[in-house]
């Protein structure tokens, strides 16, 4: 009887232990998602969306800046919003809910309003506020260039990639 119990229980215990190990490993959060990702302009070599001066206050401008991988250049996509990896729970925002072409992009306390809703469509980022695209103002691909909300036109100033 004792031998029967060992023959039945040992493989079962081993199997359960293995399942536990697999579950623990697969439940580990992905560093890429937890730490955020960079959003790079396809129109310029190595320029990223950047919260200017790593400002954690409301209204901080978002510009293009040489990619460094720092927290002010990392973004976390959650609930159709792009939250900055900087402390303070700030999200990519169309300033003051402005629906016109050229509206500035900044960061602001995260909320569920349309100025902070974004979706990826191919290589563009489309605003939930008005269906316009995240754009490099006047295709000025230089450090510190302004990023705005502008009617989608398929231009290189509206082309982005994540890394």
From TrEMBL:
Residues 1-24 form the signal peptide. Keywords: Lectin, Signal. Residues 35-163 form the Ricin B lectin domain. Coiled coil: none annotated. One of its GO terms (molecular function) is carbohydrate binding. PROSITE patterns: RICIN_B_LECTIN (PS50231). Gene3D superfamilies: 2.80.10.50. It holds the Pfam family Ricin_B_lectin. This is Ricin-type beta-trefoil lectin domain protein. It comes from Actinomadura chibensis.
């Amino acid at each position: 009887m004792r031998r029967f119990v060992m023959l039945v229980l040992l493989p079962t215990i081993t199997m359960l232990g293995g399942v536990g190990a697999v579950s623990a490993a697969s439940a580990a959060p992905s560093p890429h998602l937890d730490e955020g990702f960079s959003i790079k302009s396809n129109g310029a070599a190595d320029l990223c969306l950047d919260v200017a001066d790593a400002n954690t206050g409301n209204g901080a401008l978002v510009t293009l800046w040489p990619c460094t991988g720092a927290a002010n250049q990392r973004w976390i996509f959650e609930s159709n919003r792009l939250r900055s990896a900087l402390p303070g729970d700030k999200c990519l925002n169309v300033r003051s809910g402005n629906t016109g072409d050229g509206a500035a992009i900044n960061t602001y306390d995260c909320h569920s309003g349309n100025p902070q809703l974004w979706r990826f469509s191919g290589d563009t980022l489309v605003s939930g506020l008005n269906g316009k695209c995240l754009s490099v103002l006047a295709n000025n691909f230089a450090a510190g260039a302004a990023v705005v909300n502008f009617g989608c036109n398929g231009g290189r100033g509206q082309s982005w990639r994540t890394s």
